[in-house]
Predict the structure.
Amino acid sequence: MSRSLEHAVVLGTAALVTFVGTSVVIRLAPKLGAVVQPSDRRVHEHPTVTGGGAAMYVGVLVSLVVATRLPGFRDVFAGSSEALAVVIASSVMFFVGAVDDLRELSAPAKVAGQVLAASLLATFGLTLFFFRVPFGGLVVLSPEWATLLTVVLVVVVANAVNLIDGLDGLAAGTVAIAAGAFYLYSQQLQKAGLILDSNIAPLLALITLGICLGFLPHNFHPARIFMGDGGALLLGLLMASATLTVGGRVVDQFSGQVYFFLAPAVIPILILGVPLIDTVFAVVRRAFRRGGIATADKDHLHHRLLRMGHGHRRTVVLLWAWTALLSTVALVPTITGSGDAIVPFALSGVGILLVLLLRPRAGDQATIDSATL
């Protein structure tokens, strides 16, 4: 079996298991009381079942088992505990989110569960090795700093994905685009010999893409089911894990056949641009208002686009397009081996445009227009 076919098998397994599993969850969720009612904090108008993260979680486990049977992924599992680390951390992260979906946890309890999952990930060997200081050198991390930075990255990315899970299909589609781009990027690094075949990042990106594709048909507007915190936090952990094993493992600076300063660390951030930008905006906004950082509001990027008059589907597609644009900015120099100098300017332009379009306005209303396409 060729390498491409093996990758297609893993992708197809993740998508199929998640798609079928989501159909099962849709039938079982009402019996467990996993139904989200409309409220002032939400934009949906009808009771909708939640818990789609359970199907995603099963999709991850089954895909990893299938990958262990494929020769092309033998090096990923041979003599390494990283796959086990992902399974254990994913299980804890999903459990924390699932409990929150059924009976709302306090913010400290929820963060404590995320920290536990991230700590287990680091304990079982999936951590940063290096940290590249902006405009400085490469720092080899001590075990203590490696664990700390690993935990911080996992918690930030998990919450970033959770924050954008406010519209039907938004989180699943955004992460699907990001995971697909990250898979292509990690493949380029493998071809250049900068990460080994034993690196788990391409496999994690592939599985993440698959479970998102399997879930999206049930979740696009009008959604039949939500992924819930169980799904959003799981996706965040998977993306953070892939980022750790690329950005924190590559010693050489790389972009195509030429060097690009900070590329291993910057490109994952670009690919995850939309949820990370939304997280920064949310923290600054809530701090400015002297409210709790965990306090929910309706001023996320998707809420602002809705208030501009975009319908539900159009808002989601626009944010998918932002993710695709940021991913393209990152990938074109990597694949073509040219155009590195354009990246900082393109990123700055995208950032400025985003701030101009979505900056807070004094006259913003708390009520969101529920118009749809």
